[in-house]
From TrEMBL:
In the N-terminal section; belongs to the HFCD (homo-oligomeric flavin containing Cys decarboxylase) superfamily. In the C-terminal section; belongs to the PPC synthetase family. Residues 11-223 are annotated as: Phosphopantothenate--cysteine ligase. Keywords: Decarboxylase, Flavoprotein, FMN, Ligase, Lyase, Magnesium, Metal-binding, Multifunctional enzyme. It catalyses: N-[(R)-4-phosphopantothenoyl]-L-cysteine + H(+) = (R)-4'-phosphopantetheine + CO2; (R)-4'-phosphopantothenate + L-cysteine + CTP = N-[(R)-4-phosphopantothenoyl]-L-cysteine + CMP + diphosphate + H(+). It comes from Undibacterium terreum. The chain holds residues 182 to 404 of 404 of the full protein. Pathway: Cofactor biosynthesis; coenzyme A biosynthesis; CoA from (R)-pantothenate: step 2/5; Cofactor biosynthesis; coenzyme A biosynthesis; CoA from (R)-pantothenate: step 3/5. This is Coenzyme A biosynthesis bifunctional protein CoaBC.
Length: 223
């Protein structure tokens, strides 16, 4: 009998896109499908963890045995993550969601109307909270894992982003064409340097990533 890698651990995961309303029927979102985050949730559960997914709008089925808090905006995702952390101690936080950096500050409570040829709505933006950076700054923080989808110079940006977000492990998607796809290729950045997980389907990569995370968590008492 092999004990599972994450038995008894609590894992909190953000996944999917966020949706920022412009008015009651329109909004700003992105092309994240949620597939990578949901695959990681499934892999963590299969490794024996108690898994909570905080998910933006996706068409995906909830992996067996995990729980989901469904949200739309980045602010709701932030608040759901903070209350999950306040409610129960989490051992690992994996931020996979493609969170909108900005929200529409002057969103309308009524549907915007097209009034004339030259008359365009003037959208104003405000910054959303950085969920990962906020969790990573907590004194009693879980082991934090961030994701990065850079379109160029991943090796350089990956290490820099790991430092900026102040996380022990940063996972880079190779190329920005991963959104919606079934396979992916990852680079893991940690204090040792970087390591590739070669192209495979997202479920295979998720299982490998969970094993990488589990070995780091068992090697450290400082989450
Ligand atoms: O800074 P950037 O958006 O590239 O960082 C990506 C990482 O930070 C991902 O892990 C993403 O889930 C997380 N993030 C977040 N809250 C934000 C923006 C990004 O948790 N507002």
């Amino acid at each position: 009998f092999q004990p599972k890698l994450l038995t008894g651990r609590r894992v909190l995961i953000t996944a999917g896109p966020t949706f920022e309303p412009i008015d009651p029927v329109r909004g700003i979102t992105n092309l994240s499908s949620g597939k990578m985050g949901y695959a990681i949730a499934q892999a963590a559960r299969e490794a024996g963890a108690v898994v909570t997914l905080v998910s933006g709008p996706t068409a995906l089925e909830l992996p067996y045995g995990t729980s989901r808090i469904a949200v739309q905006t980045a602010q709701q995702m932030h608040d759901a993550v903070m209350s999950a952390l306040a409610g129960q101690k989490q051992d690992i936080f994996i931020a996979v969601a493609a969170v909108a950096d900005w929200k529409v500050a002057n969103a309308s409570t009524q549907k915007l109307k097209k009034t004339g040829e030259q008359d365009m709505p003037q959208l104003q933006f405000a910054q959303n909270p950085d969920i990962l950076a906020n969790v990573a700054a907590m004194p009693d923080r879980p082991y934090c894992v961030g994701f990065a989808a850079e379109s160029e110079n991943l090796l350089q940006f990956g290490a820099a982003k790991r430092a900026k977000k102040n996380v022990p492990l940063l996972v880079g998607n190779i190329g920005h064409h991963t959104f919606g796809q079934d396979d992916n290729e990852l680079v893991l950045f940690d204090e040792q340097g970087h390591k590739n997980l070669p192209r495979a389907d997202k479920q295979t990569l998720a299982t490998q990533l969970i094993a990488e995370i589990a070995s780091r968590v068992s090697n450290t008492n400082r989450h």
